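Quick one, probably user error.
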């Protein structure tokens, strides 16, 4: 293998590596490959070539070669110049050489060509396509013979673009000056990388170091024509692919080694492949993917979060959706439950209101008696006052006393009516602070006449300190009233002298309030204690079984609880536990 310049000069170095790989893959025989470099191609001085020819002739005098592969145009030109001086009959493959650099008229019958076609016009049009505002293109080219050739060839080929873009060249610059120029290019500039083998100072640039240094400082995007420069520094476009030439070269070499005549092997020049672009460079220079030629391939695209974590994100999304659906379902059920609770509470209020009406009906005789007393007293006092006024010398002081009695009895009747109206009115549940000692006392007053008529003694043992809870005073009165009436009904078979009901209030150590209503009746059988608060459960012949159920519903709506017990000495006791009002509790503490 004869290399132009050396084994590590791009682009030929990349082709050399790929051709070796393809030869190993395609050859049915083991191959012994030797590499040589044409260092004389770095200058125009051809004198040293004679010594190089002597060197090659001496090496292979006793060990003839089966095939010569020349990589690059300088190597091909060298072989054609000296074909008759040595290895005249050895088969030759000219590869990685632009067809304009091959002297087809000088080819022998032992020469096969795997040429390429560099379409510089298409490469420059690609720059103007992806960067439509480009006004200046700086072409990087050195001073070696091959670079001088391509400077002239490029200038001629891109003449149609002369009115669209200004072209500048770097062959008169040292590489350090080239870097300074690249760092200060005017806006809307681009760089086209042709070759940088020997700069104006005669410095040789091997490998990819020069391109890397340029890429690090330039303020404009870099384009080129060969895939060997692609992957780190250039934007991309239509390019020659290393694999295309390498595969074709290895195929021709194997055919020649197999005995075919070189003159019978013809291969068309390898053209630009579909455009390829470096996504990283596109992002750096703000090149939109919409501007790329149709069918372009974008390489090195950074995967999106979805591409990197597709399964994780899908699992998380699924979990979120599942959780959202569960939350939605729970919210829906919560709303239904809340509506059901509101509806049930409303029905409970209506049922409690009906219960109060029924209780008032039962108490009608007692209420009438309680009203008749102050009304009868008012009538008597009015008649007395009339007689006193008709006398010849009315006593005004006595008349004032009579009027005071009338006023007192009127207030007494009004209070009875007020209590009854409060008991029977239908109102929305609006929690407010309620003083339980006063509430219990008012219920005892309402039932005092009925208790007297049924020979029941009402007594109370109230807490010495105010007991305030948050709730509805009317509903709490209804609970106490139901319990007292139930107690009166339970004592119908008890001797009259032993009928008594006691109401107690107390502040418990846990910060709650207890109301206890006890009677001296027969008590509640143990097997019925767990059922007395169930709807429609009753021990009365004419009972509906709703009074205690309503009482429990009201107490629980106030955040409390109610329970029934049978006293050791006889009789039943119902205990209501309610939480103290928050503000009142803090004051007590």
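Nope, works fine. Designed sequence:
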């Amino acid at each position: 293998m004869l290399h132009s310049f050396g084994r590590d000069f791009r682009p030929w170095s990349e082709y050399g590596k790929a051709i070796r790989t393809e030869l190993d893959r395609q050859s049915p025989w083991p191959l012994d490959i030797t590499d040589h470099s044409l260092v004389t191609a770095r200058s125009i001085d051809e004198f040293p070539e004679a010594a190089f020819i002597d060197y090659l002739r001496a090496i292979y005098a006793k060990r003839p070669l089966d095939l010569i592969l020349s990589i690059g145009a300088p190597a091909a030109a060298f072989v054609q110049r000296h074909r008759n001086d040595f290895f005249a009959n050895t088969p030759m493959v000219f590869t990685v050489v632009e067809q304009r650099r091959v002297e087809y008229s000088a080819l022998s019958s032992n020469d096969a060509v795997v040429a390429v076609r560099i379409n510089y016009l298409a490469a420059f049009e690609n720059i103007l396509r992806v960067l439509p505002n480009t006004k200046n293109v700086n072409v990087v080219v050195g001073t070696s013979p091959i670079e001088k050739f391509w400077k002239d060839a490029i200038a001629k080929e891109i003449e149609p673009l002369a009115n669209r873009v200004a072209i500048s060249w770097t062959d008169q610059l040292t590489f350090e000056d080239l870097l300074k120029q690249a760092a200060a290019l005017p806006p809307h500039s681009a760089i086209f990388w042709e070759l940088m083998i020997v700069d104006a100072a005669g410095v040789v640039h091997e490998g990819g170091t020069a391109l890397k240094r340029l890429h690090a400082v330039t303020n404009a995007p870099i384009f080129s024509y060969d895939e060997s420069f692609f992957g780190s520094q250039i934007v991309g476009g239509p390019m020659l692919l290393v694999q295309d030439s390498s595969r074709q070269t290895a195929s021709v070499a194997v055919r020649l080694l197999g005995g075919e005549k070189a003159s019978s092997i013809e291969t068309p020049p390898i053209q630009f492949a579909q455009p390829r672009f470096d996504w990283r460079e596109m992002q750096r220079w703000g090149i939109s993917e919409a501007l790329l030629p149709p069918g372009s391939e974008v390489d090195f695209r950074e995967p999106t979060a979805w591409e990197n974590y597709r399964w994780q994100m899908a699992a998380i999304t699924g979990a979120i959706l599942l959780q959202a659906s569960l939350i939605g379902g729970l919210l829906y059920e919560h709303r239904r439950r809340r509506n059901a609770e509101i509806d049930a509470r409303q029905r409970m209020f209506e049922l409690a209101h009906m219960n109060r009406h029924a209780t008032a009906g039962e108490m009608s005789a007692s209420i009438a008696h309680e009203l008749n007393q102050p009304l009868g007293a008012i009538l008597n006092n009015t008649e007395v006052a009339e007689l006193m006024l008709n006398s010849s010398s009315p006593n005004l002081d006595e008349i004032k006393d009579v009027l005071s009695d009338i006023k007192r009895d009127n207030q007494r009747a009004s209070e009875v009516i007020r209590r009854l109206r409060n008991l029977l009115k239908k109102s929305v549940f609006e929690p407010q602070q309620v003083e339980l000692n006063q509430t219990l006392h008012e219920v005892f007053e309402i039932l005092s006449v009925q208790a007297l008529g049924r020979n029941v003694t009402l007594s109370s043992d109230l807490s010495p300190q105010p007991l305030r809870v948050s709730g509805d005073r009317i509903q709490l009165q209804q609970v106490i009233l139901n319990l007292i009436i139930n107690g009166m009904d339970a004592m119908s078979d008890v001797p009259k002298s032993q009928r008594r009901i006691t109401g107690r209030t107390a502040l418990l150590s846990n910060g709650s309030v207890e109301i206890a209503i006890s009677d001296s009746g027969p008590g509640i059988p143990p097997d019925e204690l767990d059922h007395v608060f169930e709807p429609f459960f009753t021990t009365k012949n004419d009972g509906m079984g709703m009074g205690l159920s309503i009482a429990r519903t009201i107490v629980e709506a106030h955040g409390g609880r109610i329970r029934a017990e049978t006293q050791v000495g006889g009789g039943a006791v119902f205990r209501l536990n309610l939480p103290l009002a928050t503000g009142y509790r803090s004051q007590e503490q």
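The first helix runs from residue 12 to 26.
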